[in-house]
Amino acid sequence: DLWPGVGDYDFNDLVIEYQYVYLTNADGDVVSIKPNYLITAIGASYKNGFGFQLDVAPGDIASVTGQMITENYLSIAANGTELGQSKATIIAFDHSKKAFSATGGTGLFQNTVVTEPYQTPDTIKMMVNLNSPTDAATIGVGPHNPSLIVNRIRGREVHLMNEEPTDLVNANYFGSKSDDSEPNQGKYYTSTKGLPWAMNLPVSFKYPSEKQKISKGYLFFTSWINSGGTLNTDWYLYQPANVNDAHLY
Question: Cα(23)–Cα(63) distance, rounded to whole angstroms?
């Protein structure tokens, strides 16, 4: 969440497990989406937000329930989408520590410091209803261009590598500090060393402990990066040959 800076690169500032359930009609068209999120770790002092974006217009959404909007830095329409967006942008929560559990996260970090007690998170359960049945190919599948909103600064949003930002991003961040984005070429959220700021993995991730670089815990991460993603494609699997447990939570 220090984008466009790199920071300690421990990849635990916001760790979320997710599930999307798609409700369809008899024709296979999507009528509703049920996103579920479990914040497993917050290795950050920042109060970060999190949302996703569907490839439909905001007006195509009938309603959104289950959002955790507690702050006052966002503008949310009556149907639950964010105002000022050309695509339906849905904020799941605007304050990560309040969303972590019913009582909020206690302490500076949640589940990243091995010497501190484990904190049990809650699951955020949402429902997104569409105004009319929509072709499943148009809706696609998760994670639906997720983004982190850094410390309640709406224009400072972090996406997966080469995913487009929303209309509300502050473009002045691109190309500053360690960011090497080139929006006119569709290049986003990659560092000058080819590193991402966010990752989407197909498994539950045993993430690094606080202030431990991901490359120390996952021995083939650097090889994967340097190869442009062609080598060691299973670097993230928790297997003896892949990891150094001393650097993982």
Answer: 15
Residues 80/64, Cβ–Cβ less than 8 Å: yes
Report yes or no: 151 and 1 within 8 Å, Cβ to Cβ.
yes
Polymer length in residues for the chain: 249
Sequence-distant (≥ 6) Cβ neighbours of residue 224 within 8 angstroms = 231, 232, 233, 235
pTM of the model: 0.95
- Classified as helix, coil or strand, 239 is coil
Kind plus residue range of the DSSP H or E element containing 223: helix 221-226
Pairing assessment for the beta strands 127-134 and 89-93 based on DSSP bridges: unpaired
Q: Which residue, 147, 64, 70, 56, is CA-closest to 104?
A: 70
Helix (H), strand (E) at residue 34: strand 30-41
Q: 134-145 burial by CB neighbour count: b if 16+ within 10 A, else e? A: beeeebeebebb
Question: If we measure between CA atoms, which residue out of 126, 127, 125, 105 comes closest to residue 40?
Answer: 105
Question: Residue 222: in which H helix or E strand, if any?
Answer: helix 221-226
Q: Which of 42, 155, 49 is nearest to 107 (CA)?
A: 42
Q: Per residue in 75-111, pLDDT tens?
A: 999 999 999 999 999 999 999 999 999 778 788 999 9
